[in-house]
Specification:
OB fold (Dihydrolipoamide Acetyltransferase, E2P); Rossmann fold; 6-stranded parallel beta sheet; globular
């Protein structure tokens, strides 16, 4: 069995499982070895039910006194129920469509049940608990068991077995990093790190495995970045893009003035465009800081100089939003500058019409999604390329757009603030600018952290805001229910919310498993105020502007990194009305409360990122990954800041001695393999 062998060569992986794994991006043996757990489950020692454990996942050791009862509900669902006694405390147990369990229980015998404890009208209850014989539970208790990201029809047990088979029968090479780095950093071998990350013997070994894998991801990321930096400087600036009076005239008629930060960044860009070499600049703009107008003004200078420019957005909703905004600004300016739009859902005739507009006008402003880089799409005199929410695009996608022109200037815009020390490492080949000031008309978003006991009050507040004509976002961490986590999920939550609020409120549902057309429709309906509440996963975080939305309520806020929470909070506060962010904290851990309280102290994303960096440690490995700049398999730039700095130093040492890796052919080939891996984005 080789690393590049198809995944169906694994024993037990048939056609059906193969298709399900393919949906998750797993096609080869190497893919499944790098398909890492999203978290881990440690079955706890059985405990006695009490009010403090209601709502938590616990295990109980209970005696079954009577045989289970099976019946069919009015909705024609088979229900199996039995009562377990923990001492004298009864706990009602219920399973749906699981009558095969009926013969499992022997009256008078003690079993262990693992599930979420709820209070049902004064009675303790568990729904769909796992059942174990006492000795079998004792054997797995306190083991660190992997929990994988799954799709419908694929079980965690199936993935676990497939990974074990792959590890047993496939040899993983340890010859990836130069031996001097292996020795210097005292890493465990790569193959051992892979195996340990899937099936750790202890938490300490898991931390060491993660350190190795996180370092390696960031090492190759930075290595590629430095090599690109060496090449970029060689391209002379062939464009004559100057500042034009018409841009000043347009700015003078805007209903607002640029902030000092916006003006400074615009000046930086103008200086780049007049430079001797083509430029690459990162604009870090906090959520709501006004990056879009700066991008437009830069594109306006390009257009008035007779050149085309392009801005690529990660979603159709955002691309259309830019198109309508830019078209209005061009119309308001009174200038004859065409604006073109390309999205995947457009008809062929519409794309042809837009392509003709581009072909006929050397000063066209071009806006689009990934459709901009499709085969056959050609641009004339493309001098400036901008990627919005740049972390949503892979290296190859960004390079493809740049390749549509003859070495154009590049601007990447990001709404995720990164502490400057980390930004200088990650973007060594780019100049870095920051927009920290918010426009003067923006009211600071009021934020609160509340416990479950305040839920009714939170819902009342939501209803009151809707009564004022406003809209609400509610964010859940999961798409569907999971037996291994207590977190809220979009599917069940939206149903419960509808039952609680009644039919007077229009509720939309949005998550990453929906097809692009479905997601666009849901967001369009929310933007047009055809829905009052949008229940969503974090897929909603990407730069969508709905000024009428005034409440952002985030369930299980303790499961998110602060950078992610700040991103989500930035979806509101975009209109004239006061906006609010409600963070539901389901964790009893005081450290989690301390972390979330940072969100109360400031609306400044850079301050939040800095404070988040201070708090993070090896104990924060799971459940609080940031959703910001980079989406590695393992690494997190906040959590792994030490490894990031270590990797940067090691890369600089190698590049200094061997600028083109001529003496490191194995390192070059491993880098190429890494760049072909589309699980990470830059």
């Amino acid at each position: 069995m080789e690393l590049l062998s198809p995944v169906d060569t694994i024993k037990g992986v048939g056609e059906k499982i193969t298709k399900l794994l393919n949906k998750l991006g797993v096609y080869t043996i190497e893919d499944i070895l790098l398909f890492f757990p999203r978290t881990y489950l440690i079955y706890p020692s059985p405990s006695v039910p009490n009010p403090d454990s209601v709502g938590s996942l616990i295990s109980i050791s209970g005696r079954i006194k009577y045989s289970p009862k099976a019946f069919r509900s009015k909705s024609r669902m088979d229900i199996l129920s039995v009562t377990a006694y923990v001492g004298d405390i009864p706990v009602d147990l219920v399973w749906f469509n699981s009558n095969y369990l009926k013969g499992t229980f022997e009256p008078g015998k003690i079993y262990v049940f693992y599930g979420r404890l709820i209070n049902d009208n004064g009675h303790y209850k568990m729904s769909q608990p796992q059942v174990f014989e006492q000795d079998k539970y004792e054997a797995i208790k306190q083991q660190i068991l992997p929990i994988y990201p799954l799709s419908k029809g694929l079980s965690n047990n199936t993935v676990t077995k497939a990974v074990r088979e792959a590890l047993e029968h496939c040899r993983v090479s340890d010859d990836r990093l130069p031996i001097e780095l292996e020795n210097k950093n005292q890493f465990m071998p790569y193959s051992q790190a892979i195996s340990t990350y899937h099936f750790p013997e202890s938490f300490d070994k898991l931390v060491l495995a993660r350190k190795r894998l996180a370092y390696e991801e960031m090492f190759f990321f930075i290595l590629n970045s430095r090599l690109q930096e060496n090449n970029v400087a060689a391209y002379p600036n062939q464009f004559e893009i100057s500042h034009h009076k018409e841009v000043d005239d347009f700015m003078a008629q805007l209903p607002f003035s640029l902030t000092n930060d916006q003006q400074k960044v615009l000046d930086d860009i103008r200086e780049d465009l007049l430079g001797e070499f083509v430029s690459q600049r990162l604009i870090q703009g906090d959520v709501g800081s006004g990056k879009t107008i700066v991008a437009f003004l830069a594109m306006l200078d390009a257009a008035l100089s007779g050149y085309q420019s392009a801005i690529m957005a990660p979603t159709e909703v955002l691309a259309k939003q830019h198109y309508y905004t830019f078209s209005k600004w061009v119309e308001d300016s009174g200038l004859d500058i065409p604006v073109a739009l390309f999205t995947g859902s457009m008809k062929v005739s519409e794309k042809k019409a837009m392509q003709k507009l581009v072909d006929d006008n050397s000063n066209c402003m071009i806006i689009g999604t990934h459709a901009l880089i499709s085969e056959g799409r050609e641009f004339r005199e493309l001098a400036l390329v901008i990627t919005d929410e740049q972390h949503r695009f892979g290296v190859q996608q960004r390079d493809k757009l740049s390749g549509k022109g003859n070495h154009p200037h590049i601007i990447v815009m990001s709404a995720t603030p990164i502490p400057r020390t980390l930004a200088m490492i990650l973007y060594g080949n780019m100049h870095v600018s920051a927009i920290k000031e918010l426009p003067a008309n923006r009211l600071p978003i009021k934020t609160c952290v509340i416990k479950e006991s305040m839920r009714k009050s939170a819902y009342k507040f939501v209803v009151d805001e809707i009564a004022k004509g406003h809209q609400v976002y509610i964010i859940c961490p999961l798409v569907e229910a999971s037996e291994t986590t207590e977190a809220q999920n979009v599917t069940d939550y939206s149903k419960k919310l509808k039952d609680y609020l009644g039919d007077d409120y229009r509720i939309g549902v949005l998550h990453g498993k929906m097809k692009p057309a479905e997601k666009n429709q849901v967001m369009d309906e929310f933007a047009r105020h055809e829905t009052d509440i949008l229940v969503s996963t974090t897929v909603v975080e990407v730069g969508v502007n709905v000024p009428n939305a005034t409440v952002m309520m985030i369930e299980n806020a303790n499961r998110f990194g602060l950078a992610a929470l700040h991103q989500l909070r930035g979806r509101v506060g975009r209109g004239d009305a006061q906006s609010y962010c409600i963070l539901m904290n389901a964790s009893p851990d005081n450290r989690e409360s301390e972390r979330l309280n940072i969100m109360l102290k400031s609306n400044d994303g850079f301050y939040i990122a800095k404070e988040d960096l201070k708090l993070r440690g090896p104990g924060d490995m799971f459940g609080v990954r940031q959703s910001g700049e980079f989406s590695f398999r393992v690494a997190d730039i906040y959590q792994d800041a030490d490894e990031l700095e270590m990797a940067s130093e090691d890369v600089d040492m190698i590049i200094k001695e061997d600028p083109n890796l001529e003496s490191h052919p194995k390192l070059r080939s491993t880098l190429n393999s890494f760049l072909a891996d589309q699980f990470y984005v830059l």
